[in-house]
Each structure stands twice: as C-alpha cells, then as structure tokens.
Amino acid sequence: MATRQDVEKGNDTITKPLIGQKKEVQIQSNNGGLWVVLLSTLVAVCGSFEFGSCVGYSAPAEYGIMDDLGISYSEYSFFGSILTIGAMIGAITSGQIADFIGRKGAMGMSSMICIAGWFTVYLSFGSFSLYSGRFLLGYGIGVLSYVVPVFIAEITPKNLRGALATANQLFIVTGLFIAYVIGAIVTWRILALTGIVPCMVLLVGLFFIPESPRWLAKVGNEKEFKLSLQKLRGADADISEEVAEIQEYIVTHELLPKVTIMDLLGKQNIRSVVVGVGLMVFQQFGGINGIVFYAGQIFVSAGVPPNVGGILYACLQVIVTAFGGSLIDRLGRRPLLIVSAYGMLLGCLLTGTSFLLKAHQLATNLVPILAVTGILVYIGFYSVGLGAIPWVIMSEIFPLHIKGTAGSLVTLVNWCGSWAVSYTFNFLMNWSSHGTFFGYAFVCAAAVVFIVMLVPETKGRTLEEIQASMN
Asked: What backbone torsions phi and psi does residue 121 show, to the nearest 5 degrees?
C-alpha cells in the first residue's frame, strides 16, 4: 500500500491503475437486490422530474402570470432567467453539500427548498415574491442536477449503470412534458402546486432506500457501507470482491491531499476534467436552448399552435430519450454521442438553410417544412445522446476524492452555458438567423471531433476501473 510519504515525494504508486493489474471484479446481484436498485433509482429520478417541472413551468404560465399580476414582458423574462442564476449557485455548492451530508441528504434538502419555492410562487401577488420563489427553485434543481446522476451511478451494477443513469434525463424531459400538458388546462397557481408532488414523493421515498455505499465508505462508515451494498446486491449475493475493490480504492485516495480547483488541472485529473467540462460545453453551445426557445415560433410559422408544438417536441424528447436509454448499455456511450452530434449537425444545417432561403425569398413553400424538420431532427438526435450521456459520463469518470469539486465545476459550466446560449440567442438571430444556426452546426461538428479523440468508452466497467484508467 502507498504511504503518505510516497504521495508527497511524487512516487508513482498512486498513478498506476489500481484495478488494471487484477482480475475483473464480478459484481453479483440477485432479484431482491435488483428491485432495491430499481426502487432507489425511481425515488432519485423524482428529483429529475422536479428539474423538468421547474424548467417547463415558465412557458405555459407566461400569459396567466402576466395578466393576473400585471407584470411586463421584460419582468417575466427575468422571472424565467432567474431560475438559471439560482441553479448556478446551486451547482457551485452541490458537490460540497453531497459530500458533507450524503447523496440522500442533498436530495432531501433540495426537495425542501423546491417546496418552499413552489409555495412562494403560488402565494405571489407581485414580482418580488415571484422572483424569490423562482430563485429557490433554481437553487434546488442546481443541486439535484448534480446529485441525482451521481447517486444512481454509485448504486448501480456496471451492466445496468448506463440505462439507469439515462433515466435521469428521461425523467427531466418527462417532467417538462407533463408541465406543458397540465399547464394547458390549469391556472398558473395550480400548476405551481403540481410541482410540489415530485418533491413529496422524493422526500417520502428517501426513507425506504439505502444511502450510496461509496459515499458511506468514503466517510468511514464501514458497517453501513456493507449493509447498503448488501441491500443493493441482494441478501444472498457475495459482495466480498466489490467491497474489497471499493475499500482499496477509498484507502488509496485518502492518502491524497485535499483537492482544490487548481488541483483539477494537474496531470492526474486533467483528462477527466476536460472530458466532463467539454461534453457540457458542446451540449449547451450546440444551441439546444436557442432551438427550444425558437421552436414555438417555428411551429407557428408552419401553422401549428405554439402550445401544441411545445407538447409535440416535449413528447418527442421523452420517446427518443427512452429509446437511447435502451441502447446505451448495448451500443456504448461513444457511438450514441457521435450519432447524436452528427444528427444535431444535420438539424442545424436544415434549419439554417430554411432561414437562408427565407432571407433570399427562395423556395418559400419549403421554408416552414425545412424549419420544422430541422427542429425535430435536432431535438430527436439531441435526446438520444448529448442530452443524457454527458450527465452519465460525469457521474462515472471522477474519483471520489475530487468528485465533489469536479462535479460542481462541470454542473456550473452546464448552467452557465445554458444561460449564455439563452441570453445571446436573440442577439445572434438579429445579426443573422441562418448564420446563427450554421454557427451551431460548426459547434456540433467540433463535438464529433472531441468525442472521437478524447471521450472514453465506459460501458461494462466498474467506476473504479474507469477512474483508474483515466487518472
């Protein structure tokens, strides 16, 4: 075993793969354990559903809030954007919170904050309380956006990790879809109350699921660590090899000094950070928020009512994300990411071409068809890969001793990118509508190169194997 002196002198004991020199660890699980894993995942993704509900709330509630409270369009725009500001702050603190009070504790705390946010919105009679409630919701989902995929990755067997981690994105888009559907038939205050439901389910469900065994091992709670892992693998499963692997990994990394942001740039960690941050940059700067923002107007131009159009593309996201989740553990992460980026490139080119034709008054009958096709192609391919898989890989590649700091950074980059694309989209469209989408197409092309050159395949490997090979 490496000593602290080895680490301080820079000896390479730690840098050698911990797992690569041993036989592959066989993770045993029986049906009882599988049901506990599925139940735990289902409870956790209530947080993902809440994420989607919060993001999807502003579109169907827009006209009701503006009419009832008499606020201006610019005030409502701030109401929509303050969610992202809260989420950025939540992302900054998410890793530290999850490391300090545990994965379950972080999910429970976030749920209570979201409940407070929804009640504040529901009781609002002015802009200040609206902003306060929306900010609380943003903070809550900023933490949830990190802790949910991490929790799922840490409890699942390697052969199911990809599919179950994809459930995070599936329930985000499902929450978005349900918010659009319910928002079309109820008032904005009632819609706010519906957002409390997934939080309550999550809070109650946390009492019936085990804590992440890897977090328990990290904080030195060995008895609870083994009990949690046994529940997740089944009462009769032999967990000795998995316990030994996790404990060796934890002990080795305990010798490393406390991690700071600058340590993430060291040679041991830089590849993981580049992959995690890079995937989030391409996910956001490929233009997803701009595409979704403009989708309503595109559908209107094609003669489709905006609320119907919103429900249509949200439904498409649910279907395609579920389809991608069924493939991720069979085809792998890299192939789906590459196909996704190519499809998004095609969608941007189609939409950009429609705007170019419109600007030059050419083939005017084809313009709305190309635009709608481009939007649907883009959203479909985004949902099958770049929508979900960056969160899956983020939850897999960071060692436990840097996961809190690195995960917070990656989540923050995601939310900053979301804000930047949303904020700049109108300015870019005023500059050149077709140029905007061709610019997004260039980002998608760069994403293909990035994925091919740098992103590892993590299918079928334990977290410890993945992290040892990268660091």
From this structure: -65, -45
